[in-house]
Each structure stands twice: as C-alpha cells, then as structure tokens.
Amino acid sequence: MTPRELKAALRMERLALRDSMTPEARIEASLAMLDHAGDVIEFDPGQVISGFWPIRSEVDIRPLMARLRDRGARLCLPVILDKKTIVFRELVPGAPIVQTGFGTTGPGEDAPVLDPDIMLVPLSAFDKAGHRIGYGAGYYDRAIERLRLKGHMPRLIGIAFDCQEVASVPAEPHDVALDAMLTESGLRIFGLGISKYETSVSG
Q: What predicted TM-score, i.e. pTM, was given to this entire model?
C-alpha cells in the first residue's frame, strides 16, 4: 500500500470514529479544549489567528476563538476560492457570515484577507510526532507553502478529538508537521513558541 493509499484508509477510519461520537461528547470535548488552551496559547496582542467554523462532526472551536479574541488576537477564517486555494478573511464581531463553498462558511468578500501568525488546523488524523492527515484536498498544505514563500512562518496547532490519533502517519515530501496538537486531553507541544506554560496531555 502506498503512503497515499494508507493515508486514505486512515482518514476514512478516523473520520468514521469521529462521526460516531455523540453530539454531547463533542460539545464536552470542545469545551475541554477551551480549558486546556484558551489561556495558554501565546501570542502578542494584534497577532492573527486563523480558526474555522465546524462542519460535519468537527470540533467546535468557536468558544476557544472567542477567548483568544478576548485576549487580543485578530481572528480570521479560511475561505475557499477555488478547488486549490483558500485565503483567510478577517472575522470581526457582527460581520455577516456567508456560504463559502464545499459546506463551509466564512466572512464575505468585503472582509480583509490576512496572513495568520498562528493557524488552528482541522484534520482527519494525527500521530504523536505531530504529523497530520488532512481531508485530502491539500488546501492547508498549499496555503502554508504560499505563506512560507512570502517569508511568513505561521505556527501550526492541529485540532482534533483523541479518537483521531493513529500510531503513525506515513510521511510524504510535501507534508508539513504541526508545532502542537490540541485534543480534549490537552495541548501537546512539538515545536517552540506555542505556549507560555509547560503543558501536556493530562492523565
């Protein structure tokens, strides 16, 4: 089995486990993530953090995003422009949220496009080394590459439930490793500069 085929199998398996969670379990896990990371992720006031609004059975990080905004972050959401490209539009209180393609929602065309300093990255599976499997379209990989070509090096925090962890993610040349991983069990640090505290998975 090729790395691409193995990733596809792991993606299907872990998303099925995520889908099987009850709505109550997803809500409790999402609020636990707020407790673990809301006051821990380090950034300067005015820095830009990209989040996402949940689709299907994803983690709901809107409470976490609200806490980060209260601490002085500028927020943005990914918006799909075409089959290969996402950009990040600023999310401000009271601004309209519109359908942005492929089941996603985000700010409208009049919202400023920002370059995130920290990216909260949705994913289908991850491992203990910080490798991730996305949803298969490569939007985030291309967005990160585009930012890095501009000299912008966003810190990457994966967002998922514990049930989405796998033993090992097969690596491919284009893969970008995470700096940290947030689940309902805690915030795991793989890189530097994510947290002002020493945090780890609890338990």
A: 0.92
